[in-house]
Amino acid sequence: xxxxxxxxxxxxxxxxxxxxxxxxxxxxxxxxxxxxxxxxxxxxxxxxxxxxxxxxxxxxxxxxxxxxxxxxxxxxxxxxxxxxxxxxxxxxxxxxxxxxxxxxxxxxxxxxxxxxxxxxxxxxxxxxxxxxxxxxxxxxxxxxxxxxxxxxxxxxxxxxxxxxxxxxxxxxxxxxxxxxxxxxxxxxxxxxxxxxxxxxxxxxxxxxxx
Length: 210
Description:
Layout: H1 2-129, H2 133-146, H3 154-170, H4 181-184, H5 187-196, H6 198-208
């Protein structure tokens, strides 16, 4: 009986001796497996974070690039538009200055022509009409008719009022007909002015341009 017990004890010890290292090995394997899983999880998490950071940085860089590109394009467009406006404004100023110069030149030519014509008319009047009333009357008659087609200014309207009053007096204040340069250029009325109102003839001559 002791022999059987001893054998069983030896077998149990043997099994225990064998089981302990196996159990320890199993625990080591479990620990290693958990460590590997933790490392993988941590590594996977770190890799994911790195990818997220990388994507976030890429997005930020892309956004900054787009913003910078938009700002650059906006500034360039503004500069181009401003330069175009300046060029157009300068062109307008140049054209306007040229137009003013042309207008000034044309006005100067016109003034010189008017001055030359008046000088000629005055000289021609003094040479050809100044000493002979018959010739002067013909000259008044012709030029007074021309006043009919001229747009009246204040001086001419004042002269016309005076001529109207004198023409009524010429007709002994008994006249209901038309008034105008067709009537005032009548040679008989001009004779009346030459005798009664020579100063009005001077005003008429001034209105004509002499």
